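Session log. Operator J.P. requested a structure for one protein chain; no other inputs attached. Running the standard single-chain path with token output.
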Amino acid sequence: MPDDDHRSAGLHGAETDATYDRAGFGAAVPRGSRPALVVVDLTRGFTEPGFASGSDLTREVTAAAVLTTTARQHDVPVIYTAISYTPAEADGDSCAWLRKAPGMRALREGSDEIALDPRLEQHADDHLVLKKGASAFHGTGLAALLTGLGTDTLLVCGATTSGCVRATAVDAVQSGFNTLVVREACGDRARGPHDAALFDLQAKYADVIGLYDALAYFEGLPQRSTAASLA
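Structure written below.
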């Protein structure tokens, strides 16, 4: 079920709920039988407070680790994403996003900042998508990969909620995928942007669901092998 905590309940109030209900927002998202999981940018530059762009995302990384482990147990494809800039991109003026957010220049290929958080594991059959922008779809092969995997439903988690997670979830539904965002496995640098992003996603683009709901969804899937999923 959708996460009602991010529909109303003290965040925006009854008047906002009434406005959104009148607009026809917030319907439940169908869940298909062939989901995939996208873990957005849970790299050290975002999950460790020692890096300028990072914050302490221990709880979110722990939730993502449970999510990825359970996904693999049920043959749900796991796709990691990371922002990675070449030296020319990081040091030059060709990337408009880096003009607005110059701190992101540290996310250069080969750096510690773009390494997957060591509390997560990348297995041999997991996928990695490198990107230059907020959305994991923009300028990448993610949509083609998901189509090749036969995906009908996309679960999204990672960092940051108000940035790359939100952009990826919006592009997921625009690309034709039923989209679920796993609340406990999403993190941000501040609570306000995090809550606002989840509220907006729940209203218009995705179902924001709890971790245990996501795990139960995986556990209720019909059995399939990876080989069969590619047939």
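Operator note: The beta strands are 35-40, 78-83, 127-131, 153-159, 178-187, 207-209.
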